[in-house]
Structure formats: structure tokens, C-alpha cells
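Technical note accompanying the year-one report. For the benefit of new consortium partners, we illustrate the data format agreed upon in the data management plan: each record pairs a sequence with a C-alpha cell string. No post-processing was applied to the example shown here.
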Amino acid sequence: MNMSLGDAARDWLHGFLPAPMAASRYERLRGCFGALLGLLATGLISRAAVGTGVALPMLIAPMGASAVLLFAVPASPLAQPWSIIGGNVIAAVIGVTCARWVHDPVLAAPLAATLAIAAMFALRCLHPPSGAVALTAVLGGPAITAAGYDFVLFPVALNSLVMMLAAIAFNSATGRPYPHPQRPRANPHHTTDKTPLERLGINQDDLRAALGQYDQVLDVSSDELETLFQRAEMNAYHRRFGEVTCADIMSRDVIAVEFGTPLQDAWSLLRRHQIRALPVLDPARRVIGMASDLDFMASADLDVFDGLAARFHRIIRKPTTIYTDRPEAVGQIMRRDVPIVGEDTHIVELVPLMADAGQRHVAVVDARRKLSGIISQSDLVAALYRGGLKP
């Protein structure tokens, strides 16, 4: 169906409207407060470093734009340390050079901005405020013109360095990783580098190929895009499978042990009930670990094949001496870093744990953090299979 001229005009005008803001109130306040602290620290430190007798400004105007990026959108590729340092310094050098060699500022200003953008593209330090730095070097007034290349060191380089250090400190203190970590490129010949979900869904290679086909600069990193896609997939799974929670699929008759349960007794429970893992509880029935058949085998050094059966029986047999250097209780072989989820957790949240992290069992706790059930990989597969058959 062809779009009418009126519809096309309406859609075009809608492009002038502001897009919805997804950031929470806390995130907005965090960005504003960070910009306040960053700009204040930059101004004070710059004044203390050079004194008040300098004709150049203590804080140049483009730093306000840099503050928006570094504190409001710290994950942006345009806000990373090399972007602000490299972009601003290179733009200042180009701006001063253009001001010296092109005497008409109407020509020198756009030439400086254009060359700065080209240099930032080439050196992978694209930083929008750097365009303003290039213009400031040309149009900033007699003091900046007289300073020449000293303008590059102060205030540009000093302002940029202090602002970057302030962003590192503030973002780290408020839970925003900065510099934003970059995931290393996987070797295309090593398929084992990819997790099961990456092999089936969208991965970094897919995103890089799509970005290359899109052929425009996006103000978001590829790993952030991957995270957004994964969350969107999770939301789609929620909609498809309905509100199926861990309480709906967990095994409630859980065989559990305590920290001091002898290994032989615990192994007997695994064999008798034909299960593969035992939650380990404290006296209040809170989960403190998980002991599986693999933990028993690892404790027996079963990677040494000589006398395998003898080693295993020796590790689970009750000791006959007072002092021994081998483990005697479940608490000595259990894994402490085990995943624990609530009863109201959606089953889709278990997929990354069991598919990517390799967890075979997940303990389920109630509102009081006490054990109420356990979910195995087979429980999850069965639930997803039944959900996939729903219309």
C-alpha cells in the first residue's frame, strides 16, 4: 500500500518530536549530579594548576558538552577516555593550525571543524564536543589566538584529563562501569568461544555485520546492543510462556543435607534417591551450598585413572583415625557459589544460568530465604517444551 503525501508529511513532522526517555529518575539525577561535580572539579583543579593570572579561560565551553556524554551516557562509544582526550586534543591542534594559516575566520572555522571530524574518524576518537573545541581555537578571541599551541595544553588537554578522571571516579562510585568494557573479538575458527545462547541467537558477529550494513555511526556499543537484544528476547519469552514461575516447575520433595553430614551418608542419599545434587543447608534451612556427584568425584582426584574405584571408596568411607587430611563432611566439598532464585522468578530467567553458566541445578527459596524446592535442567527443558506447544 502506497503512502499518501499527507501521511508522509505527517511522519516527517513526527520526527521533530522528542523520543521517549527511558532513563529512570535516579539515572537522570545521577547524570546531573555527576556533571555538576565533574565540571566543578575541572574548573577548580585547572585554576589551582595555572593560577588566576592567566588570560585563558579556566574552563572552556565544550567541556559542558563533554560532561553530558561522560556522566549522562557513559556507555556511549563517543564518551570513552580516548574519545575525549584524543578528540579534544587533536581538534585543538587542527583549530590552532587553521587559525594561523587561514586568516579569514569564516573559512578557517568550518575548515577546522571538518578536518577535526576527519581526523577523529581516522583515529577512532569521535567526540562531538571536539568540533566545538576546533571552533573555539579559531573564534575564541584574542587571548586564545595569542596563546597559539599553548591552548592545546591549557585549557584543552588539562580540562579533558581532569574531566575524564572525574568521570572514572564518579561512574565507578555510582555503579556505572567506566571506561565501558569492550568484549574482545572471538576467534571465528574457535566455535567453542560462543555460549549455547550465542550459537542459537544473536551474537557479536551478527551485530558487527549488521552495523557494517547499516553504515552509520550509532551512539551505542555493540555489546550494549547485544544486551538490549537479549533482554528483548527475554521479554518475548515472558509473553510467549506466560507467567510460569519457578514455584510451578520445581521439585518440592527436596533431599537436603547439612554442612557436617558425612560424605558416606550424603553419597548414600544420592544413590538411594537417584538424584545428582544435594542442597546444603544451615540450621535455619537457608541454602549455603550445593554438593553434586561431580563434587564427590573431584574430591577423590578421579582424573588419575590408577586405582579409580579405590580412590572413590576411600574418599567417601568414614575415617577410622582422629586426624586426616581428606574431606570428611559435605561442607568441605560443596560449591558455595551456587545460584539461588525466588519462587516467583520466571522460568526464562533460568535459561542463561543453565545454558551459558552450565548450572545443572538451581535452588529455589521462599520469601524468608529458606529452601522450598530445586530445579534441574530436565525440569526446565520439560517446562519450556510444554510452553512451546501452547497456541
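Partners are asked to follow this layout when depositing records. DSSP finds 17 helices and six strands in the chain.
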